[in-house]
Design brief:
This protein is α/β, with parallel strands linked by helices. The chain has 2 domains: about 5-165, 3-Layer(aba) Sandwich (Rossmann fold); about 170-285, N-(1-d-carboxylethyl)-l-norvaline Dehydrogenase, domain 2 (Orthogonal Bundle), CATH 1.10.1040.10. The chain has helices at about 15-25, 35-40, 65-75, 100-110, 125-130, 140-155, 165-195, 200-210, 215-225, 235-250, 255-270, 280-285, and strands at about 5-10, 30-35, 45, 60, 90-95, 115-120, 120, 135-140, 155-160. The strands form 2 sheets. The chain has a 6-stranded parallel β-sheet with strand order 3-2-1-4-5-6, sandwiched between helices. Strands 7-8-9 form a 3-stranded mixed β-sheet, sandwiched between helices. Strand 1, helix 1 (about 15-25) and strand 2 form a beta-alpha-beta unit. The protein is globular and about 70 Å long.
Length: about 300
């Protein structure tokens, strides 16, 4: 299917650039905006000076860091909805923001006759670049159906989860699961090593077993070689746990494993570890009296990298 819509892109950080690049590679006509203009220019497409300059596009994607950033690029005279004469037909926010902020933006968009889709994405820039990311999408079904081919260019799959802001909850639940699985992987890896098993051997066994997954394989190089180049930080993970636990309280859902994992994430932050949230491994090792060393073993991450 030919992708002929005029697409605007707001937010050209590491994630936004990786996502926009996949659209550009698929032949989509993209016009970009970023607060630091040079990051948008690096995409090699037309660049505008303000979000409002994208008001004439058919579809505008947003990928920013936080709720306040989303409001800034959408609302006010400089925002993409700020032109009194025109507005995008569809606004798609791929950021991870609070449901309350998403609902506020949805209301602003609807007042301008713009359909709004919440479409948070899982993964990090390397996962996106490899075509293995997944998006949860909520909002008007007709708008989702129109944008679906563009989601298909960005991600491995996009799942329509319903109306309103439910996609935000899907992403929060996903990130809580990331934390729980990583904590379990960390403490069991520490147990294996303290019992005399090399980390790379244990993780090779795990990844080839029924308990392995694309995620455990993807995190294995960090666990083996202690390379904690950030993909998602413990501080960001804590934010999502806080949001998830608030929803659990609201709906009276008991979350004992999540609650314990949240405390372990907080302990890792308090201990001053820096980098990717895989540093949960270091805190598990410290609690066990074990000092880890890089094994300097080549490990396949499952994404075409080592």
């Amino acid at each position: 299917m030919e992708l002929t819509a005029r697409v605007g892109w707001i937010g050209c950080g590491r994630m936004g650039s990786a996502m926009a690049t996949r659209l550009i590679t698929a032949g989509v006509s993209v016009t970009a905006y970023n607060r630091t203009r040079s990051k948008a220019e690096a995409l090699g497409v037309e660049v505008v000076d303000r979000p409002v300059d994208l008001a004439g596009q058919d579809i505008v994607f947003v990928m920013v860091s936080a709720s306040d950033d989303l409001l800034q690029v959408v609302s006010g005279p400089e925002g993409v909805l700020g032109d009194p004469e025109r507005a995008p037909r569809i606004l798609v926010d791929c950021s991870t923001v609070a449901s309350e902020t998403s609902a506020e933006v949805r209301q602003l968009a609807e007042a301008r006759g713009t359909a709004f889709l919440a479409a948070p994405i899982s993964g990090n820039p390397k996962v996106v670049a490899s075509g293995n990311s997944v998006q949860a999408v909520s909002g008007p079904r007709e708008a989702y159906d129109e944008v679906a081919p563009y989601f298909g260019a960005i991600a491995k799959s996009a799942v329509y989860t319903g109306e309103g802001e439910v996609a935000r909850l899907v992403k929060i639940c996903h990130n809580m699961m990331l934390g729980i699985v990583t904590q379990a992987m960390a403490e069991i890896t520490v147990l294996a090593e303290k019992g005399g098993v090399a980390r790379h051997a244990w993780l090779e066994f795990l990844n080839d077993s029924v308990m392995g997954s694309p995620f455990t394989r993807y995190k294995s190089p960090a666990f083996v070689n202690l390379d904690f180049t950030p993909t998602f930080t413990p501080t960001l993970l804590r934010k999502d746990f806080d949001l998830g636990m608030a929803v659990a309280y609201e709906h009276d859902v008991s979350m004992p494993v999540s609650a314990l994992t949240l405390e372990l994430v907080k302990a890792t932050i308090g201990a001053g570890y820096d980098g990717d949230f895989a540093v949960l491994l270091l805190e598990s090792a410290r609690a066990a009296g074990l000092t880890l060393q890089p094994e300097n073993v080549t490990v396949d991450d499952g994404l075409g990298g080592r």
